[in-house]
Design brief:
about 220 residues, alpha/beta, 10 helices, 8 strands, about 50% helix, about 15% strand, globular, binds cytidine-5'-monophosphate
Length: about 220
């Protein structure tokens, strides 16, 4: 069995950074499942797809021409690593992620990331839906204030402008949507270790995950 570590949690909980570093330390592959929803959202925004048309969005998701090359995310030959991090794309991703057909269309793509020697998968439903038998499941969380602060820094570092007030509101709206949707709601998977990183840096969180994996 190829081992999988799932790291789920709300927006800007630090799961991306932690999952990436854990994967590096173990020499495992890494799946950023949120990027797949973001890629679908970016495609839809660019094509002017009706954001209420579940069927059309699912088709886009099913036929995404994307690849992950080192740290870069490529969509139809274009490097969109930064473009998919824009707030508009994240908000659209969170809206289209409520459609069952869109989620279903991305399942096969996600399962395909499980390759030897192992996988670290980050998202919302990695431990609950996509890899329910993963030997280690982690649910990473942090206070809204801590997460808004991290998102602010991330956006400024990428050259986007950002307002703390707007970020707090967006985060709460997205949490609300992710937690209350009927399909794959954001809750800790059965058997998940919950890790609150409000007062923790990324290295400490990585160490904790590696300890759990070793035990
Ligand atoms: O993690 P990230 O913020 O990049 O994800 C973008 C959006 O995609 C989230 O707000 C969430 O609604 C959705 N998502 C999801 N299931 C996943 C990963 C992301 O519904 N496994």
């Amino acid at each position: 069995q190829i081992p999988v570590i799932t790291i789920d949690g709300p927006t800007a909980s630090g799961k991306g950074t932690v999952a990436h570093r854990v994967a590096d330390k173990l020499g495992f592959h890494y799946l950023d499942s949120g990027a797949l929803y973001r890629l679908t959202a970016l495609s839809a925004l660019r094509r002017g797809t009706d954001l209420a048309d579940e069927h059309a969005l699912a088709k886009l998701a099913e036929h995404l021409h994307c690849s992950f090359q080192g740290g870069d995310i490529i969509l139809s030959h274009e490097n969109v690593s930064d473009a998919i991090r824009a707030e508009e794309v994240g908000n659209t991703a969170s809206k289209i992620a409520t459609f069952p057909a869109v989620r279903h269309a991305l399942v096969g793509l996600q399962l395909g990331f499980r390759k030897a020697p192992g996988l670290v998968a980050d998202g919302r439903d990695m431990g609950s839906v996509i890899f329910p038998h993963a030997p280690l499941k982690v649910f990473l969380t942090a206070s809204v204030a801590a997460r808004a602060g991290r998102r602010y820094k991330q956006l400024i570092d990428k050259g986007f402008s950002a307002k703390m007030e707007d970020l707090l509101m967006d985060l709460q709206a997205r949490d609300d949507r992710d937690t209350h949707r009927t399909i794959a709601p954001l809750v800790p998977a059965e058997g998940a270790h919950v890790l609150d990183t409000s007062e923790m840096n990324a290295d400490e969180a990585v160490d904790q995950v590696l300890k759990w994996y070793a035990s």
